[in-house]
Amino acid sequence: MSGGEFDLIARLVERMPPPGPQMRVASGDDAAVTEPRGTAAATTIDTIVEGVHFRLPGFPLEAVGRKALAAALSDLAAMGADPGEAYVSLGAPESLGEDELLRVGDGMAEVAAREGVTVAGGDVTRAPALTLTVACVGYERRGTELVTRAGAEPGDVLAVTGELGGAAGGLLVLDGLDDEGALRDRQRAVLASRQLDPRPRFAAGRALADAGARAMIDISDGLGADAGHLARASAVRAEIDLGALPLGEGLVGLLGDERRARELAAGGGEDFELLAAIGHERLEEAVTAVEGLGGRLTQVGRGVQGEGVSIRDADGGEVEPRGFDHRPGRPRPGPRGGAHQ
Fold this sequence. Notes:
- The protein has about 350 residues and is of the alpha+beta class.
- It folds into two domains: about 5-140, CATH 3.30.1330.10; about 155-320, PurM-like C-terminal domain (Phosphoribosyl-aminoimidazole Synthetase, Chain A, domain 2, Alpha-Beta Complex), CATH 3.90.650.10.
- The chain is about 35% helix and about 25% strand.
- It is built from ten helices and 13 strands.
- It has helices at about 5-15, 60-75, 100-115, 165-175, 185-195, 200-210, 225-235, 250-255, 260-265, 285-290; strands spanning about 25, 35, 40-50, 80-90, 120-125, 130-140, 155-160, 215-220, 235-240, 275-280, 295-305, 310, 320.
- The strands form three sheets. The protein has a seven-stranded mixed beta sheet with strand order 8-10-7-11-9-12-13, sandwiched between helices. The protein has a four-stranded mixed beta sheet with strand order 3-6-4-5.
- α2 runs parallel beside α3.
């Protein structure tokens, strides 16, 4: 590694929030050293790539950093974990200078400070396209157990936090495909923010775990795909009601059709909300807990005997959720996922 690359790493480290108390040795040595917390640790890894998950120059560099870290942290939120450390590998093309890469670091630092994460180490190298791989470690809270995908039972309610389809709609907005002027400026900004500043749902994940959620997964590949992941791990069938999906603000106006908006909400991906399987007797408790945080929890389906996933409309017809792909060869939200899958 050249001296310039060492200098870049040093400047990136300076931008990050101070290390947490669990760090015995943080960035700057051959390896990071953490003090054991006495609880189980959950580890995940995620990669975003220019031309697949974002496109320059239309996607701000700070937003690239925010998205890379938030996407990895979202997996930990889905287990009801507390966030801990992050490790980052940055691959940069020669077309990006040091100041531009520091803007990527600024975006990561913003998320790390907000979520209480220590960026404990990383690496920088040249790459054909801007690429960030982020590994994150989270921790089981004392007196609780981490929630996996594998605990759903027939009869469980399937519920989602927040709203769906906003990230896919945000990509349309960023691509300038809302040219009919159907959206107000605030709606346009809300949709775009789902791409530019995704938020891992740590507080909701902990609240759902405490309210007895038997299984959880973050919605990164799209509700249809991720419900399928949860169903497979739990050996149940997930039945989803298309008409029950909570839609992102402005999504119907953007697409000009509620049916299209609902199909996009079912398959668009990158919303980073949580899908939880909850016993019917504890649903009210879970709703109250999430609403107490200022959030929203909506029943969208149920688990039944069988396998796979079905999404049905009001007439009982089955819907095949399609991932967001508005132009051939253009990036779309998802598919995503880490090495834990």
